[in-house]
């Protein structure tokens, strides 16, 4: 009798270069014989990029991440965690999208994400697509956890704060998901941590909303050279077990390591640094780790990628985020 909650193809019998690509070779949501109910995570694509302000092409991101994720393996060396023994995970396909309307698309993504699995148990992980899609999955996640008054906490990796009110006449672009989420009560800005902000801005006012509403900003320079590590740890300790959404915009990584993105910003994390930062969140919390109730990885643009390295990184970021939930469950069950 297998102790696995998610049954993967045996890579030494069915090679990773064969078969139909799903996220990390997880079963599809219809393959009920390959995961143990109740379903913990439903991973889906959001192939929409009409919210971009520079280079389009992120609509092909979910497909590219699926392809590169064939080489993601289930055992995490640093956490000593066999992910498939702890979590039931599936590829739930792609959300229906509305390619000519950002606001309608966010509603479409929210409806789809909210329909996956058991709303009282299953968590939704979105692979974008541009960052405007995050508003939809955050809405669905907020609904899944009972629409807590004040909204969700947010752990946000990005070069940009994404709290601009209007860009080119559009209020629902990839520059605005979090200002809209705050307005809707989905997000508590005082419990929002933005990590990796960097690069020149159009104006200092681009930071004003976040600063005025209590967002914790940790720039890449803060993290690398100043007190950013301590500030992240302080935020994580204060957050404790509160319900948090985690969003990872791949452009927080230096384009030398992640060239396949629509708004490249020089400097920033190496691939190793980004993974190290994610892996360190449980210890930074001083406890079992953050209580991640929904998540996404966004802004992969395959047309600008080289040898698939950006999509491969996004796939491993997805794995790291899932492992955060796995670590928390293991520690909680052990009383740690």
Task: Provide key terms for this protein.
336 residues; alpha/beta; Arginase, Chain A; eight-stranded parallel β-sheet; two-stranded antiparallel ribbon; 11 helices; 31% helix; globular
Question: In sequence order, what are the helices and strands, one letter per element?
Answer: EHEEHEHEHEHEHEHHEHHEH
Count of DSSP H/I helices: 11
Terminal-residue CA separation: 28 Å
* Helix coverage percent: 25-40%
Instruction: Give, in spatial order, the strands making up the sheet with the most strands.
Output: 4-1-5-10-9-6-7-8
Question: What's the main sheet like?
Answer: 8 strands, parallel
Radius of gyration: 18 Å
Tally of extended strands? Answer: 10
Strand content: 15-25%
| Multimeric organization | single chain
CATH class: Alpha Beta
Please name the CATH architecture: 3-Layer(aba) Sandwich
Summed up, what is this model?
This protein has 336 residues and is α/β, with parallel strands linked by helices. It is built from eleven helices and ten strands.
What topology emerges from the helices and strands here?
Layout: E1 41-46, H1 61-68, E2 75-76, E3 81-82, H2 83-86, E4 89-94, H3 102-114, E5 123-128, H4 134-144, E6 152-157, H5 177-183, E7 187-197, H6 208-212, E8 216-219, H7 220-225, H8 228-239, E9 243-249, H9 271-279, H10 281-285, E10 291-298, H11 309-333
Parallel strand pairs: 1-4, 1-5, 5-10, 6-7, 6-9, 7-8, 9-10
Antiparallel strand pairs: 2-3
Helix pairs in contact: 1-11, 3-4, 4-5, 9-11
